[in-house]
Amino acid sequence: MAKQKRERGMFFGRWKATDGENANPWEAIGKDNDELTKELNPDTESFKNVLGEAGLVHSGYEPEVDVDPYYMDPNRSMYEHMLECALEEKYGEEDLVGEFAEAFFTSADATAGTMTGYCYVRDAWFVPQSTGGDTSGYSIPYNIKPVGPMVKKNIVYTLATNAATITDITTP
Amino acid sequence: MATQRQTIIDIEGTDVASKVLLTLLNQFPGLDGREITFSTLNRDSGISMFPTSGAVIVENRENVLGEVHQVCAYPFDIIYRAALKTDRHKMRVKEFLDALGKWLEQQPVTISGTVYQLHNYPEIGENREIQRIQRSTPAFLNAIDQDGVEDWMFTAQLRYTVDYNKFMN
Fold first, then answer.
1. How many CB atoms lie within 10 A of CB B130?
2. What local confidence, expressed as pLDDT, does residue A123 receive?
3. Measured over all CA atoms, what is the biggest interatomic distance in chain A, rounded to whole angstroms?
């Protein structure tokens, strides 16, 4: 079987709604990146017992995603608040915590221009790392640190608009 | 051993660029009734656009969302053929070509006392957009035949971008 194409797996992010009702649209992360990786950073410790047997203690993961570069573009849904946080150097939870979705697409519809699959959604810190950059464009690279429990959901992604629709999985 | 770089041509873009460029050239305000043809010159007269090669993909970037961004370069020559008797005539031909080149570069040009400027490049089809047209040389005398017919020319390059999505199957 051939290896899977890179675009099968995608990351999405959005800020939490401030008015308690209307959710912000999801932004497909990676428009400026030819490489984007969620580092799992496993917390493991090897040991050997008195019998000479090797063992491993796995205490979980500390995932993070480095989005660098991220060019400021007013068309992106996370743009405005990211700019505000970076310029004003905000660091509170109410400012920097949003939602993060990691998707895996299982099918595609060429006519409709959509991809369908599942994703895992959870809260995440979106932490700006710097502002400025080179002459390619005004960049605010940021680091994503997913936190808390994750929930599996359905996702439909539209290629033409980079829009994602994430819905609860309903058991029949 | 050095690896030979393969030149990749945007074949569809080449066709589109040829047509769009020819239409644009014939919109030059300084033509004064003349027509710029495509790769065709009479034995002793004419103005024509000659593509040097196809549209070469000079840059190809792909992001993790499957979106591809390419920059293509379409080089071409403009040749003005005429039997020029005096150096004043030759100067006029050179000035015509230099003005045409400046106009293609979106610089203001003065023709018969009026300033003209190409503000927007034309549409070049779905997913493609002209970035710029830039001369590689000023107008120069390229050839004289035994009858004294001269070919004056300049070379230029049309750069455009292509954006599309590699669809996942």
1. 19
2. 96
3. 63
Q: What is the DSSP string of chain A?
A: -PPPPGGGEEEEEEEPPSSSSSPPPPEEE-TT-S---EE--EEEEEEE-TTS-EEEEEEEE--EEEE---B--TTSTTHHHHHHHHHTT---HHHHEEEEEEEEEEEEETTTTEEEEEEEEEEEEEEE---B-STT--B--EEEEEEEEEEEEEEEEETTTTEEEEEEPPP-
The CA-based angle A92-A96-A97, given to 5 degrees, is: 110
User: 0.80 exceeded by the pTM?
Assistant: no
Is residue A100 within 8 A of residue A13, CB to CB? The reply is yes
Amino acid of residue A90: K
Other CB atoms within a 10 A radius of the CB of residue B137 amount to 12
Q: What is the pLDDT of residue B80?
A: 97
Q: What residue type is assigned to position B95 of the chain?
A: E
Residue A90 near residue A82 (C-beta atoms within 8 A): no
Mutation target among B60, B62, B63, B64 for the A interface, most CBs of A within 10 A: B64
| Series of mean pLDDT values for 10-residue runs along chain B (169 residues) | 65 91 96 94 95 92 92 96 91 96 97 95 91 96 92 96 77
Residues of chain A with pLDDT under 50: none
DSSP letter assigned to residue B60: E
Q: Which of A31, A35, A108 sits opposite B65 (nearest CB)?
A: A31
Cα B79 to Cα B45: distance, rounded to the nearest angstrom: 10
| Cα gap B139→B86, rounded to integer Å | 17
How far apart are the C-alpha atoms of A85 and A91, rounded to whole Å?
8
Using CB atoms, pick whichever of A36, A110, A115 lies closest to residue B64. A36
Residues found in chain B:
169
